[in-house]
Amino acid sequence: MKPYILVTSAASGFGCALTEYLANNHYRVLGTYYHSEGSAEALVKKFSGQVHMIQADLSKAEDRARVVTYARHNGGLWGLINNLGVYSETWIENIDTVMFEQIFGLTCTVCFDLIQRTTSLIRHEVDRGSGIGRIINIGDSGADRIEARAQATPYHIAKLGVHVLTRTFAQRLGAYGITVNMVSPGFMENSVGEPGESIPLGGPTRFADVLHAVGYLLQPESRHVSGTNLLVGGAWNLG
Asked: How many CB atoms lie within 10 A of CB 115?
């Protein structure tokens, strides 16, 4: 039985497209979802035996543990894609502590905790000869810059944190045969609001553009690529 790639928020939006892309390219996917039950069931039916979905509230440590335990007893894990992120256009003066902590926790803390929880399983697959283990964090086009962010402030702080986690875990896990990278989309085809400035390469970033970047980081040819932040945004939002 092939080990899974664990994908968070895997049944809606870009996560749904990511699940389909991975399954179509013969990866075995263990996806999490919160509310998107209909979409999750459709993906499981379409990719019978290749996609498994678990309903989980990833803000809860016990649900994160349950997902990882399922993987441990059902084929293991070869990779992890942290896709979950919560974006709200709310201005900073209208953000209270509860909202800040919820957004930061789901966007950054969950990423940290799942890497910690899954490392031993990925290391086990590496040791068994499954090849280089892969961790990919989905970032944001501004995640490598410290700037004022008056809207969606906790989201942007969280993605900056994900960038730091990416580089740090790349440094720490490389010795175990695990690469850690970030793919940072720009203004996407399903993004909220307007881009605010022209996109030099024209139009929103398509899901397909980001999926091909993820696909590259899963290939054997990228075995020495680790700690990088791959921007996929048509040269938009470069500061």
From this structure: 22
- Quote the crossing angle between the two packed helices 153-173 and 110-127, to the nearest 10°: 20
Q: Which residues contact 125 (CB under 8 A, 6 or more apart)?
A: 3, 76, 77, 78, 133
pLDDT digits (tens, 9 = 90+) for 150-189: 999 999 999 999 999 999 999 999 999 999 999 999 988 8
DSSP-derived 3-state class of residue 44: helix
The architecture (CATH level 2) of 4-232 comes to 3-Layer(aba) Sandwich (3.40)
Contact present, 93 and 73 (Cβ < 8 Å)? no
Q: What is the pTM of this model?
A: 0.96
Assigned token pair, 228: 């990088």
Structural domain boundaries in the chain: 4-232
Helices 207-218 and 13-24, axial angle in degrees (round to 10):
50
CA distance 232 to 96: 32
What whole-number distance in Å separates Cα of residue 31 and Cα of residue 20?
11
